[in-house]
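Researcher: Sequence of ABC transporter permease follows. Predict its structure.
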Amino acid sequence: MVGLLLLILALPLVATLLYGLSSEWSNTILPQGYTLQWFIELWSDGRFLSALGHSLLICFGALLFSLLLVLPVMFVIAYFYPKLDGVMNVLILMPFAVPPVVSSVGLLQLYSSSPLMLTGTPWILIGCYFTIALPFIYRAIANNMQALNLKELMDAAHLLGASSFQAALCVVLPNLRKGMLIAVLLSFSFLIGEFVFANMLVGNRYETLQVYLYNMRNGSGHFTSALVISYFLVVLLVTWLANALNRERG
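Model: Prediction complete. C-alpha cells:
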C-alpha cells in the first residue's frame, strides 16, 4: 500500500523529468529522444542562477531572523510566563487569517513611500517570510520544548552554578536541535515556493525562483520542466544537508 502511494506521488515528478530530458515528445508514449540540452541551458543562464541565489538568500535570512527572535521569546514564555502560551497560539494563527493578496496590498501602501521605502527590496520579503515561517517555527519548537522538563533542567543547571543565560544556551538549546531542524525544513519548503509576496512586492526588481518560473511560462515546456526538476533537486539537497549535519552533531 505504501509502495503504491509512493508510486502515485512520484509519477508526476518522473513525467516532468522525462519531459525535461526529452528532445522531442509529442505523439508517442515515451520520448522520441533524450538530451541534456535543457538542463545545460538552464544552469548556464545567469538570470536563473541569480534568481536561485536570491531565493536562498531571502529564505535563509528570514529563517535566521525568525530563530534569533523567536527562540528567546519562547524560552521566556515557557520558563517565566507559561500562561502566555495561549496568547501566542492565537497570534501565530493570524498570518493564516489574512490572504497574501490582501496583505500585499496593505504592505504596498505602507512601504512604497518614505520614510520606509521597502517595496522592491529583499528586506520586505524577509519580513513577510518571517510571518509565514513563524507558525511552523513556533509550533515545532514549542512541541519539542514541552517534551523537555524545562523547569527541572534549569533548576539542575542553577544548582551546578550556571546562570539562567548559561543554562538556556548550554543545556536547553542543544536539546531543541531536532525541533529546530523540523521547523527550518518545514519553513524552507514553504518559503522557497512562495510566489504572491515575491511577485507583488518585489517582482523583477529582485527576481526570485518562483518569479523566474512565472516569467518563463511562455517559453519551451522542456525548459520549464528542467526548471521544475532543478527546483525540486535544490530543495532535496538542502533537506539532505540539514539531515546529514544533524546526524553528525548527534
